[in-house]
Specification:
Layout (H helix, E strand, L loop, with lengths): L1 H9 L4 E4 L2 H4 L3 H5 L9 H7 L13 H8 L6 H23 L10 E5 L17 H23 L12 H22 L15 H6 L1
Parallel strand pairs: 1-2
Helix pairs in contact: 1-6, 6-7, 7-8
Length: about 210
C-alpha cells in the first residue's frame, strides 16, 4: 500500500522488494485461467459503429482471437523482470512525490529476496548465486519499466532521469542490490567491528560474486 511506503520512508526505513512472483503481482496460476469473453449488444454496436454492417463482419472463435492477440502479452521471460522493476519504480514514484525525503527515493529500496520462503521464484534470481544476473536484469529493464510507468501515470519524470545515463543507472542498481542495505545497518550500528570492504567493492559483492 502507498501509505505503508510513505510511512517507511518518513521514518527513514528501508523497503525490501521480494523476488517471489506471487508477491510481485504475477503468477503462473493466474495466467492459466481462461479469459472471459466480452459481448456487445446489437443496439450498442449500431451506436458505436454506425457505418459498419453486422452482416459484413467475419466471425472468429475464441481460440482464433486468442492466437491473434497473443503477441500483445509479454513472455514469461520478459514479465518477471518487468514486474520486479515496476514494483521498484512505483515505490520510487510514491516516495519521490509523497514523502518528506524526495531527493533520492531509490535510497529506501533494497532486495527483500524471500529466498527461504518462495512460493514461485522469479526466473531472474532464484537464489543468491544469481545476483549477477539480477543486476544485469535491472540494468536492462529498469529504464523500460520507468518509461512505461511514466507513459501510463504521467508526472514523476525527473525521478527517473537516472535511467538515461548508464553510470547513474549502475549506481542506483548497485545501491538497491548492496549499498542501501549496508548503509541502513551501518546507521543503526549493526556493522560496528566489521572490517571495511575493499575500495570499489561492497562486502556483499565480495561474498556473492
Amino acid at each position: 500500500m502507498d501509505e505503508d511506503i510513505i510511512e517507511i520512508a518518513n521514518s527513514n526505513g528501508l523497503i525490501g522488494v521480494g523476488l517471489d512472483v506471487d508477491i510481485l503481482g504475477y503468477s503462473t496460476k493466474s495466467k492459466l485461467q481462461e479469459d472471459v469473453c466480452e459481448f456487445i449488444t446489437t443496439p450498442d454496436f449500431i451506436h458505436y459503429f454506425p457505418y459498419t454492417s453486422i452482416k459484413s463482419i467475419d466471425y472468429a472463435s475464441v481460440e482464433e482471437i486468442q492466437a491473434e492477440e497473443s503477441w500483445l502479452e509479454p513472455s514469461k521471460k520478459e514479465v518477471h523482470p518487468l514486474n520486479f522493476c515496476f514494483n521498484i519504480i512505483h515505490i520510487m514514484a510514491v516516495i519521490g512525490l509523497k514523502s518528506k525525503f524526495q531527493d533520492a527515493p531509490e535510497k529506501f529500496i533494497c532486495i527483500g529476496s524471500d529466498f527461504d520462503a518462495f512460493i514461485e521464484p522469479s526466473n531472474i534470481c532464484s537464489d543468491s548465486r544469481q545476483f549477477k544476473n539480477l543486476k544485469a536484469c535491472l540494468m536492462k529493464w529498469l529504464p523500460v519499466a520507468a518509461k512505461k510507468y511514466q507513459k501510463v501515470n504521467g508526472g514523476a519524470k525527473d525521478l527517473f532521469d537516472f535511467t538515461k545515463k548508464k553510470k547513474e543507472l549502475n549506481e542506483v542498481v548497485v545501491g538497491i542490490l548492496y549499498e542501501n542495505g549496508r548503509e541502513f545497518l551501518d546507521r543503526r550500528g549493526f556493522l560496528e567491528g566489521l572490517s571495511e570492504p575493499k575500495k570499489g567493492e561492497t562486502s556483499t559483492e565480495a561474498e556473492l560474486v
